[in-house]
Every structure is written in C-alpha cells, then in structure tokens.
Structure prediction request, 339 residues.
Amino acid sequence: MPGPHPAVAAARVRVRRALAGLEVDSLVLVACSGGADSLALAAATAFVAPRLGLRAGAVVVDHGLQDGSAEVARTAAGQCRDLGLEPVQVVPAQVEETSSGPEADARSARYAVLRARAEELGAAAVLLGHTLDDQAEQVLLGLVRGSGARSLSGMAPSRRLGPSLRLLRPLLGLTREQTLAACAALDLRPWSDPHNDDPRFTRVRVRQALADLDADLGPGVRQALARSADLLRDDADALEEVTRAAYPGLGEQPWEVTRLQELPRAVRTRLWRAAALAAGSPGTDLTAEHLRAVDSLVTDWDGQGPLHLPGGVRAGRGAQGVWIGSAAPAGPATGHNGT
Prediction:
C-alpha cells in the first residue's frame, strides 16, 4: 500500500517533532485561517496528535476586515471539523487601528484572541502555519529595515505565550508549494486571500522582491535566508542570556556609566531595549536608531538633555548615571559621572 504524498508526510513529520514532549491528553489548538498553510497544518495535526495521545482542536479568527469574512471562517471551521479536530471555534477579533499599520494591528488582535481562547480551553499549545517562505520574507524585510540580530533571526519555532502555554510553528521548514501540494493530495479546498496580491501591503511587496531575487540569483534564496535566521537566532539568544545575567548586577536606575562602559555594546543595546519595553515603549516602534541614541549617552555624552523614545518613554544621563523611564529618577539631574 503506497504511503502518503511526500508533502503530506513532510508536514506530519514536522508536527510530530513539534508536539513531542507534551503531556498525554494535552489539548493543542491549530490557528486556521482557511489558507493552504494553516489547512495543511490542521490536517497534519489531526493525524499526528491522537497518535501521540493528544487532543487537537482549532480556532478560526474572523477579523471582519473583508467582505465575506464570516463565510470564509465558517468554511475553514467546517474543513477542520471534517478532519476530526474538536473543539473547533470561530472567534471574532476586534482590530484596533494604531500607528503600526493594518497588518500589525490585525496580527495583534489575532494573537490576543488565540491566547485568550487557548487559556480558556486549557490548551498546552497554539500551532501557527508559518512556512519557510514566511520566514524568508521576514528576514528580507528585516534586512531592508536595517534591523539587528533579533529581528533578522525571524520567527522562532517555539516560544512561550504564558506559564503553561506555548506558541509553535511546526511548518517553518516547509515551503508554500509543499503546503499547497499537501492540500491538493488531501482534497482540501484552501482559501486564497485577495490581500496576498494587493501591493498596498508590505508583505506582498516583500514576497514579490523575493521572487525577483530567486529569478535573478537562482533558486535557494529563501532557504539561505531561513538558514541565516536560524544561525542569528542562536547568536541573539546567547547575547540575551548575557544581558539577563548583567541586568540585575547593575542594580537600580540610574546606572553608573563606568559599569555600563564595561559591557559590550551588543549587551548594552539589548539592555536599553529591555528597559524601554519595561517602561512602556512599544516594541514595534522601538528602532535600532533609538537604541543607538541611548547608547550615545554612554559613549558620546556632552550634556545633552533626555531622549524621547516611543510610548512616552525617555532616556537621559545625569550626575548619578543613565536612566530610562517616564521620568528621571529622584536625585541630581545634571553633571558628569566620573568618566
């Protein structure tokens, strides 16, 4: 008897690896939009999870941003049920407009819904259908923006959403062509999002640029970008571990300049980012340029006043050292710091 289609088998192998180690009878939820990537993931999860002693369901998020979105969501939910997933829920999302743009706003709303529903159902993991193509596009966008190692490391295969909840991306090693092939082999009917062809969206333009690179430089560009992301993620993880170890050793703000100067610049910039985020600066708006400006308070300070960071956060240097927050710490606010 012939085995499954190679694309179907590849998706199942990836899902099996991602779910290995979860406790028996745990619930995992597939985030399914009805597109080829998430449908292929739903099918692989429906096959693999019971064989690992796990329960598998799905959440379909209806952003309500397109005509007919409710029908698309119902169709996706129906296909998930036909695959044997249970529970399957369609949940509306409230997308709030911010300065981050429509893509980021929809993503934030989607993740909030997925996390809330997973916690309500007691799920151990939420599975997303991002592929190698998505990873390559993410890295290319980071390169264009001049981002640092963390941004260029792309999307992590696994990260924690809560004390007992993980977000998993099992298909990061599969291409979009493979997920389409898997759906065809399983007679699934993926939805084609018209926004995927709309050049108003940044991700669409990045996708086209990547296709042009493939055509001009030859095949393998996407795989190379994804490999670079894996390598840079290891580097970023190591640097952030050093930063986490250094942070408590600095004590309360303001931080002494002489102690900051002893830290490598790569550690200092991560320290600035961590402190700015803790003070309320939104990570989507905090750029490498902001972090370089904060670092100049250590390396090139001549008495300039506080810097303004996104989210109403400020950074400055006074007689007692460097600080980041909504306001300067109590104490002398001017003067040099023994450097």
Notes: The beta strands are 27-31, 55-62, 88-92, 125-127, 158-162, 165-168, 307-309, 313-318, 321-325.
